[in-house]
Design a protein that fits this description.
about 325 residues; Rossmann fold; seven-stranded parallel sheet; two-stranded parallel ribbon; 10 helices; 13 strands; about 35% helix
């Protein structure tokens, strides 16, 4: 297959690139390096079946050129950070909603067989019932979640109006190697960075808020199964473990792994605006449709992230070759 992965040099996207190159597909990796990192995909540049394009999903003319002849699209390009969405709501909307609409329209024009759109569990807001299935109310309390709800509804509208084959995937908190620790990075990577350097993890609020942490390898496996699934999947599909971990417990676990118990303690600061208090997935739809279950323990995933992070060096974009 000829597969386009937008946001392909990012944390999750680069793992997808690895998977499909290994399987013998042709992969077009599109990234504007807003979140992506060249070091995530540099090892793929020598493959004749891999093409890296520095581009933005807000550029429709560029999308038209590269989507022609593509069989499937994974749309991972997004402004993914809650905090940044509060500071820059218009940017978040432009990328997540208008950019997604560009992808859908170009895919419709050129008859792309399947689009897998990466949504997020943040569309749900804090859990009203647990575990949270795909029919949970969409109560995102921040601009990031609102933008992803709008993108989800646009995907639904294209499915209904144009009979486009779009699958909406809602992963819960994904973690693993290549997850950024800088700026608005994932909380696990940020905690690891601070504890490694002898600094305490900073917790917003009381640390009792929970998340469902999913190993990136499990998510990538699920996405591969969705690509192969022979029928349309007209309803969103959660990808998560069905287990929740408190932020405070996470901080203490990382402190323990670095043998810093008694030396470092978490520091508590004021809660962030729009903080979701509880997330835990009902993954029964993924199990039933795809035969998917998470295979990696949280502890193993955390160890692999720490091993990767010890050797991590960011790399700025320069045109390959």
């Amino acid at each position: 297959m000829r597969i386009l992965i937008t946001g392909g040099a990012g944390f999750i996207g680069s793992h997808l690139c690895d998977k499909f190159i290994k399987e013998g597909h042709i992969v077009i990796c599109l990234d504007n390096f807003f979140n992506g990192d060249l070091s995530n995909v540099r090892h793929l540049l020598n493959y004749k079946t891999f093409k890296l394009i520095n581009g933005d999903i807000r550029d429709f003319d560029m999308l038209e050129k590269i989507i022609q002849g593509v069989d499937a699209i994974f749309n991972l390009a997004a402004q993914i950070h809650v905090d940044r969405s509060i500071v820059e709501p218009k940017l978040t909307y432009d990328i997540n909603v208008l950019g997604t609409q560009n992808i859908l329209e170009a895919a419709r024009m050129y008859d792309v067989e399947k689009i897998i759109h990466m949504s997020t569990s943040e569309v749900y807001g804090s859990a009203e019932s647990v575990p949270m299935n795909e029919n949970h109310p969409l109560n995102a309390p921040h601009p990031y979640g609102a933008s992803k709800i709008a993108a989800d509804r646009m995907c639904y509208a294209y499915n209904q109006t144009y009979k486009t084959n779009i699958v909406i995937v809602r992963p819960f908190n994904t973690f693993g190697p290549r997850q950024k620790d800088t700026g608005y990075g994932g909380v696990i990577s940020i905690f690891v960075k601070r504890v490694m350097s002898g600094q305490p993890p900073i917790i917003y609020g009381d640390g009792q808020q929970t998340r469902d942490y999913t190993n990136v390898a499990d998510l990538v496996e699920a996405l591969g199964l969705i690509l192969k699934y022979p029928k349309p999947i007209p309803t969103p599909i959660n990808i998560g473990t069905g287990k929740e971990i408190k932020i405070l417990d996470l901080a203490n676990m990382i402190i323990g792994l670095f043998k810093q118990r008694g030396k470092i303690k978490p520091v508590f600061v004021e809660p962030r605006p729009g903080e979701v208090q509880r997330l835990i997935a009902d993954n029964s739809r993924a199990k039933k449709l795809l035969g998917w279950t998470p295979k990696h323990t949280f502890e193993d995933g955390l160890a692999s992230l720490i091993d990767w992070y010890k050797n991590y060096k960011s790399e700025e974009w320069t045109k390959p070759g």
